[in-house]
Specification:
Layout (H helix, E strand, L loop, with lengths): L1 E5 L4 E5 L3 E2 H7 L7 H6 L11 E6 L9 H6 L7 E3 L4 E2 L3 E5 L3 H25 L15
Parallel strand pairs: 1-7
Antiparallel strand pairs: 1-2, 3-6, 4-5, 4-7
The structure holds FE2/S2 (inorganic) cluster (FES).
FE2/S2 (inorganic) cluster binds next to loops.
Amino acid sequence: MVSIKFVKENKEIEVATGSNLRFKAQENNIDIYTFMGKLTQCGGYGQCGTCVVDIVEGAHNLSPRNAVEDRMLKKRPSTCRLACQTVVNGSISVVTKPDKKESLKKLKAEKAALQAAEAVPQESAGEDSPSGKTIASVD
Ligand code: FES
């Protein structure tokens, strides 16, 4: 058994390892859909993108993001998942109905951090070392 904590609802549930996040949320009366989501949701087939949740703790305890999620969640940070596509293998904390503006901010911060991380090796490539010898870049 593992636990899922729903932060906004202040509710924690115990589920079997390998449970589907959307199914367990609904089974425990956790509302994961916005008003529009309630009207247009696909029933858990990965077609509508309305079951978005933000994993604030324990993301490593979930199944990896699949191709459907990569396509549907392009404008969301890596912490966001489609509940219907997510299998819970360990304890997590979840924010339901994450705010789109906050998600966009997180996404921009993630992209900036990624760009900064990628820029570091290029800036140091070919620079002189403190010993006076040129450091060759290794690619
Ligand atoms: S319920 Fe439609 S994508 Fe999850």
